[in-house]
Design goal:
- The termini are far apart.
- 16% of the residues are buried.
- By secondary structure, the chain is of the alpha+beta class.
- The model has no long low-confidence stretch (mean pLDDT 81).
- It is 50% helix and 11% strand.
- Strands 2-1-7-8-6-5 form a 6-stranded antiparallel beta sheet. It has a two-stranded parallel sheet with strand order 3-4.
- α3 crosses α7.
- It is built from 8 helices and 8 strands; from the N terminus they run αββααββββααββααα.
Length: 393
């Protein structure tokens, strides 16, 4: 694991799991901290432009893992009831006595080897095996290892070295794997079935389960391997006196894949997806604000249009009144023209009558003049000049 970035080496797990239902083949799986893996992946320069794609792929991983978990066969039923073993305190020099919340004090049996923590402190190792938790079967007595159960009532036994040896050393030791093989074959023969469902080894922060934060975990924690038992093994071994420590250990071992996707989803994906949703909601809110502004502007425009329509209606009404007045004026003008035409006709008739009167007057004058001239001529002819003159006068 030395080639992994420090972020990914902070906590990881190696798991040995069966490949088939008859346990004839096994596989080794490396389990990295999903959150650290996700953060490291997002930090890679050649992927920075594809952050959204990374989020999608991580979500696809969670969905695929969930489908895999949903399709797992049901776990066999363990016939014994769950027990809650006594609690113990391994803290060296604990002053709480009988009031210690961690449980009954253990005054001996711990490792005591000085260890180094990530925060630089060097306390003594408090790893130890309580007699109540020890597996005392003679065929499980090994010169370099102890076999025990944890306080947690899960279906598992723990293989740990008698001396202080960290897991990263045990993993490379052939004797460790020879001992594991002996445990596996011995148990399987004892119950006439496969006794183990898997083996898990933790490193870093996950190796020190009691650490409160990442600065307190031991850099060289006392090594221990978790060996998950089948329900058949628990049901069978619980009736053997030397295996009474296993009685009531019926809780399912922790499913690391389930825990893995839960942590990735809760600590990274859901916050990221929520931020995307909030971002989209922000855009929707902005669109709504813009829409409200548009509606407000449209309302103003509509009000202005309504005013324009009202003015137009008034103009049309005035126009209608003007047209009506024009029609009345035209009618009056037409009446005036008709009257004028009648007057013209009357005038023409008057002129014609006047012309006739003038003609008659002219004829009368002409006739009288002719008569007067004839009388003058007649008088001249009668040489009555005096009468002519008098007539002329």
């Amino acid at each position: 694991m030395g080639e992994l970035p420090n972020l990914l080496q902070l906590k990881y797990r190696l798991e040995v799991l069966p490949l088939n239902s008859v346990y004839s083949e096994w596989k080794l799986r490396v389990k990295l901290d999903s959150v650290a893996w996700f953060d490291h992946w997002k930090s890679l320069d050649n992927w920075k432009s594809l952050d959204n794609e990374k989020d999608i792929k991580a979500r696809e991983y969670v969905k695929a893992a969930q489908i895999k978990l949903d399709n797992l066969p049901p776990v066999d039923y363990c016939e014994h009831e769950l027990v809650d073993p006594r609690r113990y305190c391994f803290t060296v020099g604990c002053g709480y006595g009988a009031n210690c919340k961690n449980g009954e004090h253990v005054t001996e049996g711990w490792c005591g080897q000085p260890i180094e923590r990530a925060d630089g402190s060097k306390p003594r190792c408090t790893f130890g095996i309580i007699d109540e938790f020890a597996i005392k079967a003679k065929d499980f007595s090994f010169p370099e290892f102890d076999v025990s159960v944890k306080r947690d009532p899960a279906r598992q036994i723990m293989l740990s070295p008698k001396k202080h040896v960290p897991n990263y050393v045990l993993m490379k030791d052939v004797n460790t794997w020879n001992t594991i093989e002996t445990v596996f074959t011995t148990l399987s023969k004892k119950i006439n079935a496969c006794a183990l469902e898997g083996i898990a080894v933790n490193f870093g922060k996950w190796e020190t389960a009691s650490a409160k934060d990442e600065s307190e975990y031991a850099l060289d924690c006392h090594g221990h391997f978790h060996m998950h038992l089948s329900c058949i093994a628990v049901n069978t071994l619980s009736h053997i006196d030397s295996w009474k420590a296993i009685h009531g250990r019926v809780k399912h071992p922790e499913n690391y894949l389930d825990k893995d996707i839960h942590e990735l989803e809760v600590r990274r994906l859901i916050p990221l997806e929520n931020s995307v949703i909030w971002g989209e909601l922000g855009l929707v809110q902005k669109d709504l604000t813009d829409l409200r502004a548009t509606v407000s502007t449209s309302s103003t425009t509509v009000a202005s249009l309504q005013g324009t329509v009202a003015s137009l209606q008034e103009t049309v009404a005035t126009f209608h009144e003007t047209v009506a007045t024009f029609h009345e004026t035209v009618a009056t003008f037409q009446e005036t023209v008709a009257t004028f035409q009648e007057t013209v006709v009357t005038f023409q008739e008057t002129v014609a009558t006047f012309q006739e009167t003038v003609a008659t007057f002219q004829e009368t004058v002409a006739t009288r003049a002719r008569d007067d001239i004839q009388k003058i001529i007649d008088m001249i002819k009668s040489k009555n000049i005096r009468d002519c003159i008098l007539m002329g006068a």
